[in-house]
UniProtKB/TrEMBL annotation:
Transmembrane segments: none annotated. Residues 5-131 form the Heme haloperoxidase family profile domain. Belongs to the chloroperoxidase family. This is Heme haloperoxidase family profile domain-containing protein. The keyword Oxidoreductase applies. Signal peptide: none annotated. The keyword Cell membrane does not apply. Its cofactor is heme b. It comes from Rhizoctonia solani.
Length: 131
């Protein structure tokens, strides 16, 4: 991620809204999205995912509209609202608990350790490691 002036990392505060999506959280932590992560509109989301992650405008627009329509209200969305179960958030994450098992928003260290332990070469994860 570019660390151009104005885009240096700033950790979230307890008042900031964050999602299960590390990419959107990073965009907010680097001020490509408003740092608060709150009250995000279509153009803000679309511009950020296009500029920061190189998504095409049609794909960025589709994802932004989907997020706002399925999780937001009044044409806006807070990052934390993206954790609504069976909207964008879903069971089956490799790093988050399922909703029925507890906190489905924050990374579960136990699951991450299990995932890292599945590496056959100790360097990374291959498709067979993930199967």
């Amino acid at each position: 991620m570019d660390t151009a002036p104005g885009h240096e990392f700033q950790p979230p505060t307890p008042e900031d809204s964050r999602s299960p999506c590390p990419a959107l959280n990073a965009a907010a932590n680097h001020n490509y999205l408003p740092h608060s992560g709150k009250n995000l509109g279509f153009f803000e989301l679309c511009k950020a995912v296009h500029e920061v992650y190189g998504l095409s405008y049609p794909l960025a627009a589709m994802l932004s509209i989907g997020a706002i329509l399925s999780c937001g209200s009044n044409g806006k969305v807070d990052l934390a609202q993206l954790a609504k179960h069976n909207k964008i958030e879903h069971d089956g994450s490799l790093a988050h608990l399922d909703l029925a098992d507890g906190d489905n928003k924050n990374v579960c260290p136990r699951l991450v350790n299990e995932l890292v332990g599945d590496s056959t070469d100790g360097q990374g994860l291959s498709f067979p490691d993930l199967a």
